[in-house]
Fold:
Amino acid sequence: MRLLLGRQIVLKEFYHTDLAVSWIEEPIAGAYAYLIGNDKGYMYVATNSDEIHYGSDFDYLNTPFGKMVIICSSKVINWELIHKSRESDTLLTIVFQRVTNISDLLLTKAICWGASKEFNVPVALLINHADNLQYQFCVPGQGREKSGIVYDSTTSCMIDMDVSKTESGVFFSVRSFAEG
Structure:
């Protein structure tokens, strides 16, 4: 699966994207599916279907890639939400959040990273602080020095990964990523 996390203008540079995840903006042709959201809700659109899925707060989303949990919030996220997503055997948890101060920004990043590591679930975080977007992608046991943080930046990135289910759960392996 090729996941674009961030501004979709990058799709002009990266082709064959499976899922583009971004803060509210117009989809740009080039991805198989789009997940567009903010702290109030989200919209999922697949290019080969007329179906559009809307949701808010805490929602399960079934996609061709697998089951995902989408969390939309304007308050600091609670680790229990990520734990709940793990209990429901989801492939990926995606968080859209707006924060008003830097301490909430840092706390949210720490909660997403820690919960990802603790509950063995990948977490993608799109966070808006003072109209500046930041992106974090955590996968347990991967990233720099196996810290679990694959990506944490203010620029978009393309993540190329293998996802498969095994008897012990979901196996998630990041092959490569590129910044936009």
Observations:
- The longest strand covers residues 169-179.
